[in-house]
Specification:
With 138 residues, the protein is an alpha+beta fold. It is built from 5 helices and 6 strands. The chain has a single domain, classed as Roll (ph1033 like fold). Helix content is 26%, strand content 36%. The relative contact order is 0.24.
């Protein structure tokens, strides 16, 4: 069964366009234990929204997990992990943080409750609703 996630990246550090250009990219640099645990829980085939944080503050695309958790090569030490993500497709219409905050159907969304968490689970109901908002049929 596919699980759903949201992963955040600052577009000036790593953008959706870079993800697309690289096709498959390790999701490195996560240094929060809750986010690390979420990465470790990801399975091959899981889907994630690609969210531009800081600049844009919007969901701009979908990625798929193609390699499960392994030691993060960008970490000097510690228990940090990464997964490999493959670009699936852009969102036809980006879904902004402002739009999500005012949508009653998204009450309880981790992005809204835990705004600093860079890797978060998404319920199937929230996934379907956000896909509808963004015009993504995937």
């Amino acid at each position: 069964m596919t699980a759903y996630w949201l992963v955040k990246s600052e577009p000036d550090a790593f953008s959706w366009d870079q993800q697309v250009a690289h096709d498959i990219e390790p999701w490195t640099g996560v240094r929060n234990h809750t986010a690390k645990n979420n990465l470790a829980a990801m399975k091959t085939g899981d889907l994630a929204f690609f969210y531009h944080s800081n600049i844009g503050k919007e969901i701009v695309g979908v990625v798929r997990v193609v390699r499960e958790a392994y030691p993060d090569p960008s970490a000097d030490s510690g228990p940090w992990v990464c997964v490999d993500m493959k670009a699936v497709s852009p969102f036809p219409k980006p879904v902004t943080l402002a739009a999500m905050k005012t949508d009653p159907a998204l009450e309880g969304l981790a992005l809204l409750r835990l705004s600093r968490l860079s890797v978060a689970p998404i319920s199937a109901e929230h996934w379907k609703h956000i896909c509808k908002l963004g015009g993504w049929k995937g």
